[in-house]
Amino acid sequence: MPMDRSASTPMRPVAEQLDALERAGVLARTHGDRTDVRAAFRALRAEKTGGLVALHPHWFAASALAPLLSLNAQPGFVVEDMIDVDEFTPVGIEIPNTPLYLVRQVSRGDDLRNVSPEEAIIRIEASHRRPLTLQEGLSWALGDPAIIEPNYCFMTIGSRKVKRVRPSGETIYDARTPALWVSSGTGRDGIERRGAPKLGWCWWGNRHTWLGIASAAR
């Protein structure tokens, strides 16, 4: 039976997460200064507290990280109708200006399965928490692949794509929201990808019984 990930999930030790990220090939996928990235790796190895080791979107593109995911001996992939995935960026979330940082009290949000992102954001913020970003979700799945389970996966609604800004100053967002789950091998995914970890999307206003909505402490 899958582990309940609705409450804050105990993280693997920081050093183990860093080792997993290095084994996955994350260092080779940075589009920033590798010297800065290696320094951030070293700094976190000295961290005495716990948390999720997260990769900063400025240094790590989601499109470069997704293929590093692995499940059932299958590499991860980005769905064909989300080639603009790198345009989904953190919204309303302050992130430290460093290639890697720690996120506290992370939850996969199993209790928010069958709740739309539009509904969930209200509940998350009322609990003095904030949604996980796409890169944070990818970091989690890279550092602990077991977090992606069939029928128990999650959305990362902390990252959104800006479509336009009205003259009034109101920001209009793309109706899609990024999500990580296991491919069934149907449709354009292809049968050869059955069981592979998948970076896809769901509508902001839709509910999905197999997708939680991941969050963390502010």
List the helices and strands and how they pair.
Layout: H1 14-24, H2 34-45, E1 52-55, H3 62-65, E2 70-71, E3 74-75, E4 77-78, E5 89-90, E6 100-103, H4 117-126, E7 129-131, H5 134-143, E8 153-155, E9 159-160, E10 162-165, E11 171-173, E12 176-182, E13 197-203, E14 211-213, E15 215-217
Parallel strand pairs: 4-13, 8-14
Antiparallel strand pairs: 1-6, 2-3, 5-9, 7-15, 8-12, 10-11, 12-13
Helix pairs in contact: 1-5
List keywords for this structure.
23% strand, two-stranded antiparallel sheet, single chain, 218 residues, five-stranded mixed beta sheet, alpha+beta, 5 helices
Got a strand count? Answer: 15
The percentage helix is 10-25%
The ordered string of helix (H) and strand (E) elements is: HHEHEEEEEHEHEEEEEEEE
Major sheet details: 5 strands, mixed
- The residue-averaged pLDDT reads 93
Taken as a percent bin, the fraction of beta residues is 15-25%
The end-to-end span amounts to 30 Å
Characterize the overall form.
globular
- As residue ranges, the low-confidence spans are none
Please give the count of helices.
5
Q: Measured on Cα atoms, how large is the radius of gyration?
A: 16 Å
Structural class: alpha+beta
Strand arrangement across the biggest beta sheet: 4-13-12-8-14
Q: How would you explain this protein's 3D organization?
A:
There is one protein chain. By secondary structure, this protein is α+β, with helices and mostly antiparallel strands. It has five helices and 15 strands. It has helices spanning 14-24, 34-45, 62-65, 117-126, 134-143; strands at residues 52-55, 70-71, 74-75, 77-78, 89-90, 100-103, 129-131, 153-155, 159-160, 162-165, 171-173, 176-182, 197-203, 211-213, 215-217. The strands form six sheets. A five-stranded mixed β-sheet has the order 4-13-12-8-14, with helices on one face. The protein has a two-stranded antiparallel sheet with strand order 1-6. Helix 1 packs across helix 5. The chain is globular, with a radius of gyration of 16 Å. The two termini are 30 Å apart.
